[in-house]
Amino acid sequence: MANTASDKWKGVTGGGNFGQKSLIFLFKHCSVRVGYFFMYFAIPFYMLFGKKSRKAIMHYFKKVFGFGKWKSFINTWKTYNTFGKVLMDRFSIFSGQKPKFKIQEEGNEHFWDLVKKDKGFMLAGSHTGNFEICGYLLKQNYKKNYALVFGGEGQNLQKQRFKQFSENNVEMLAVQDDMSHLFAMNQALEEGNIITMPADRNLGSTKNVKCKFGNAEANFPLGPFSIAVIRDVPVLAVFVFREKTYKYKLIVKELTLNDLEKELPTKKKAEILAQKFVKELECQIKKYPNQWFNFFEFFD
């Protein structure tokens, strides 16, 4: 069985504080395309020495899409390439290039409909494309948005995140080992606010549900959906994919239970919501196969 995300993938952006500061300085004076150029020299290094992550991505293409070894290798290279560009885009936003980025929206009316209501709700994201870019480019002043983030990032990156998020009414909520962030999440929903969190990785929790994904099976977290069911709040699946330089596509999907499903026990309702999220994730991944950045062994 595949190991959990917490065992294999620590979620820390590479480069250290010096490298991250250098990128921000670079993009203050240069186009993001300059970062893409230097990135091409780094990809072979990660492909060569990042053995575990490389094998995990190749396994993803073999298990989910049924690709052979050579096609899986080519797509692994493309995935590293896209991931590098996503990181460059993120740091270019930190440097002040935010106005250059454009987002094409699909289904975002579901978000605005919930924002204007008194009840809190949840945004279930994933490690696809550049989900974080939503917090920098989509602004609303109706509700506070608490974004669950990994607490082990470098000080400089956390500082830049906080600065950009705070401008758009987004507050970071760090994952804690003692799970105390769960109390803050419950309070935020009770007060009618928004919780944004990834729903494709187990962040320290052992509660999960096995779901079919492509030609494979994997464990997906129950936590986000258990919270939604217990608090009786709506859930939206949100995906943000890179289309080209300075352009992203935002896709919002409602995750709802039918009348019969609403009568089921709490755990079963959470499992159904998780499965519906996974189905939406699979649908989007088939359109953007090189934009799911799970650099650890995920599938059984």
Q: What coarse outline follows from CA principal-axis ratios? A: globular
Strand content: 15-25%
Overall pLDDT metric:
85
Low-confidence stretches: 1-12
Total beta-strand segments: 9
Strand order of the largest sheet: 1-9-8-2-5-3-4
Secondary-structure-based class equals: alpha/beta
Question: What is this structure's SSE topology?
Answer:
Elements: H1 5-8, H2 16-29, H3 32-49, H4 51-65, H5 69-97, E1 102-106, H6 109-115, E2 121-125, H7 133-137, E3 145-149, H8 155-166, E4 170-174, H9 181-190, E5 194-198, E6 208-213, E7 216-221, H10 223-231, E8 235-244, E9 247-255, H11 266-287
Parallel strand pairs: 1-9, 2-5, 2-8, 3-4, 3-5
Antiparallel strand pairs: 6-7, 8-9
Helix pairs in contact: 2-5, 3-5, 4-5, 10-11
Give structural notes.
- With 300 residues, the chain is α/β, with parallel strands linked by helices.
- The protein has a domain at 5-10 and 101-287.
- It is 48% helix and 19% strand.
- It is built from eleven helices and nine strands.
- It has helices at 5-8, 16-29, 32-49, 51-65, 69-97, 109-115, 133-137, 155-166, 181-190, 223-231, 266-287; strands at residues 102-106, 121-125, 145-149, 170-174, 194-198, 208-213, 216-221, 235-244, 247-255.
- The strands form two sheets. The chain has a seven-stranded mixed beta sheet, sandwiched between helices. A two-stranded antiparallel sheet has the order 6-7.
- A hairpin with a 2-residue loop joins strand 6 (208-213) and strand 7 (216-221).
- Helix 3 (32-49) packs antiparallel against helix 5 (69-97) and helix 10 packs across helix 11.
- The chain is globular and about 55 Å long.
- The protein starts with a helix and ends in a 13-residue tail after the last helix.
- Residues 1-12 have low confidence and may be disordered.
